[in-house]
Amino acid sequence: MEGLVLFNALVTRLLFFLHSLVGVWRVAEVKKEPRYWLLALLNLLLFLETALTLKFKRGRGYKWFSPAIFVYLINIVPSLWILELHHGNQYCGSQSEEMSQNTSIKEDFNQTLMSSEQTHGGDNLIESAKVFVNNLSTMCEKDWTLGLHQTFLLMLIIGRWLLPVGGTITRDQLSELLLMFVGTAADILEFTSETLAEENVRNNPALVYAILCIWTWSMLQFPLDLAVQHVMCPLSVTARGFPSLFLCQYSADLWNIGISVFIQDGPFLVVRVILMSYFNVINQMLVFFAVKNFLVVMLHLYRLVVLALGVRASLRRQPEVPKEERSSRVELAESGVPPGGWEGGAKEGLALPFRAPRPSDDSDPTP
């Protein structure tokens, strides 16, 4: 079992490293400057995180937070920023040129594969790999950027699935978390691809920076496991009033609501409303996802009110207890003594621990 945990931990981080390296290679190809290869040095953080995780956690994850996902975001997000800010990535040739280019790419690649199969030589395999890489580099820059965005979101979901579970999160909670990630991935992909594809948006650098900042902010939800962590509340919390009971009993729901309202759906709704109202950027998908964000925010706020009313109703159904007696009950509950003391607990029919009789002073201790 430990071997499988180490294998999953290493394979997942290797996938993160390779994908971030592809992003750096694409940036260097687009910018035509070798200095952008220095972005690959960010992977040193991934190597450091891997070494620390293997040493202190034996490959397993941490409670409430995934450092591997966070370091992967640090590695790949700068490359995607540079590709999106590069003005050449939204312009492609005509459709006929793209079709002829794709056809020639397929023909060249098929010829190299046939020649490598006939000769079975190591040199020909290297040559075929070089031709394949050259053909990839001639693809449209817009397609490359969109492909990196898509594979980036897929790597986050698959990587979180493959990473060993650690802390208090269970496999059931992990499946719930992955379903949440799949649901948010489509909205995040549309937010960057559709909005940045508009000409009015591309012509406004400040707006492009704002969209990329909101997109980066939304990525912070992926390293967190707070939305599915259910905390067991002690009995003494009930006597402390509404705020303590509400925060303790529905901590996972509150994190889920907060992440949606303040990290994804709320900021996305604000940006889309500004695009439609102020910048006059209106299309079918933009309107649809804006309505979707609005409904999600309203439903989360509605759920927040329902949970609060439920806790209020549960507290009202309990008998009124004076404040002094309530504080004493809290102290007794925390110390393990039942309300009313041992005698009171016996009168109420509570199961009390066995207490050995105390010998008298005049009794003989020896048998």
TrEMBL record:
Residues making up the signal peptide according to the UniProt record? none
Q: Which Pfam family, any one of them, does this sequence belong to?
A: Tmem26
Biased composition of type Basic and acidic residues is found at 320-332
UniProt keyword annotations, A-Z: Membrane, Transmembrane, Transmembrane helix
Q: Which InterPro entries match?
A: Transmembrane_26 (IPR019169)
Q: Where is this region: Disordered?
A: 320-367
Q: Membrane-spanning regions, if any?
A: 7-28, 34-52, 64-83, 144-163, 206-224
Q: What is the protein name given in its UniProt record?
A: Transmembrane protein 26
Upper taxonomic lineage: Eukaryota, Metazoa, Chordata, Craniata, Vertebrata
